[in-house]
Amino acid sequence: MKNKILTSISTLSTLMLFIPWTILPLRSFDWALKSPVAEIMITCYAVFMIFSGAFTITSYAGGKVQNNLMKICLIVNSIYAVGGAAVLGMMILPKIM
Fold first, then answer.
1. What is the pLDDT of residues 19-73, one digit of tens each?
2. pLDDT of 2 strictly over 80
3. Per-residue DSSP letter, 33
4. CA distance 52 to 73
5. d(CA 14, CA 17)
6. How many Cα atoms occupy the beta-carbon half-sphere of 74 within 13 Å?
7. Minimal CB count within 10 Å: which of 51, 63, 68, 72?
8. Angstrom distance (rounded) from CA 2 to CA 57
9. How would residue 88 be classed by pLDDT, with cut points 50, 70 and 90?
10. DSSP assignment, residue 67?
11. What count of other Cβ atoms lies within 10 Å of the Cβ of residue 48?
12. Burial class (CB in 10 A: 0-12, 13-18, 19+), 85
């Protein structure tokens, strides 16, 4: 039972690697480039990237899911999380100041 849970966590983290790249085909539409839709879409993707990074870090460290696939997911999702936090910071800081 534990092996199935660990495998499903690894699979979920692996799927989280590819979801942020779905923004590229969406941004080819004209409606996705207009102001309110673009901001909402980028914010949602950034929040998802931060969530996937936190989920992978928690699964790797706290859940003891430490196989080779999970190490790759940890590195990539951590980079995504930092990038998502940077994007959110660039969106929020000008509105605050």
1. 999 999 999 999 999 989 999 999 999 999 999 999 999 999 988 788 898 999 9
2. no
3. G
4. 10
5. 5
6. 15
7. 68
8. 19
9. very high
10. S
11. 16
12. middle
What is the rounded distance in angstroms from the CA atom of residue 73 to the CA atom of residue 7?
13
Q: In this structure, what are the phi and psi dihedrals at residue 19, rounded to the nearest 5 degrees?
A: -60, -40
Average of pLDDT values for 62-85? Answer: 92
| Distance, C-alpha 31 to centroid of its chain | 23
| Token representation of residue 21 | 């790249």
The answer to whether 8 and 55 have CB atoms below 8 angstroms apart is no
Determine the Cα–Cα distance for residues 43 and 35; give it in Å rounded to an integer. 12
> Alpha-carbon distance 65 to 62, whole Å?
8
Q: Which two tokens stand for residue 9?
A: 């966590």
Residue 36's SS3 state is helix
Stated as kind and residue range, the H or E segment containing 28 is none
